Amino acid sequence: MSIASRLPVFKAKAITKTYGEGETAVHALKSVDLQISRGEFIVLLGPSGSGKSTLLNILGGLDVPSSGLLHFAEHQLSGASEAELTRYRREHVGFVFQFYNLIPSLTVRENIALVTDIATDPMPVDEAIAMVGLLPRADHFPAQLSGGEQQRVAIARAIVKRPDLLLCDEPTGALDYQTGKLVLEVIARINQELGTTAVVITHNAAIAGMADRVIYLSDGGVQRIESNQHKLAPSELSW
Questions:
Q1: How confident is the model at residue 5 (pLDDT cuts 50, 70, 90)?
Q2: CA angle 230, 232, 235 (to 5 degrees)
Q3: 38-64+82-236 is classed in which CATH architecture?
C-alpha cells in the first residue's frame, strides 16, 4: 500500500505554540497544518529554533498547542487533560532522545523491562533487544556499552510496548558517522517491519534521504514538504 493511500494518523490544523506574553513572547509554532499517515517515515528538518522539537513534543503529548486542532486517530489532543495525555503517551508513543536516559544501575534487560510494567500489550523484552541487535549485551550495564549501543537500548525501550508512534529527537546527534548509520538502520527496520509511524528530528540533511516525506521548518512554520520517490537505505546515506 502506498503512503498516499494510507489513513492519516495525525491531523493538525492551524497549530500554534507561544511561550510567554507581550513583547517577550516566543512564537515557537505558527499556524502549522499537517497530516501524517499510519506507517509513514517523516523527517523534520530545519535549523535550531525552527520549531522542530516543539512540534515533536506536541505530537507526543509532552506539550500542548496554544491554539489549533490536533487529532491522533480518534483522540483529540488539543484541549486534552493531563491525565488523557499521560494515557496517550503510555499507550501509543515511544520516545528516543539524543541522550539515552538509561538507569545506570540496571542492565540492558532491566532498563527495557521497566517499560513493560505500564504497557498494555508489550512484546517480550528479549524480542525488543534482538530487534536492535543487542542480545549478547543484555546483561551489561550502560557504562559497559558504547554510545551507539546505549542509543539502541533506548530504542528497544521505546518499542517494547509496541507503540503506534516512534518519535526521535536527534537520535544520531551524539554519534559518529558509522554508529549513526547503525542507529538509523534500527529505526528504519522498526518502521518497515512493525509498521510504526516514525518521526525523526535532525539537523543533518543527508538523513532526509531515508524518509517518505521531509518537512522543512523555518521560524516556527512549515516552509515546504517534499516526498521521496526513491527512499535510500541508511547504508546508502553519506554525510
A1: low
A2: 160
A3: 3-Layer(aba) Sandwich (3.40)
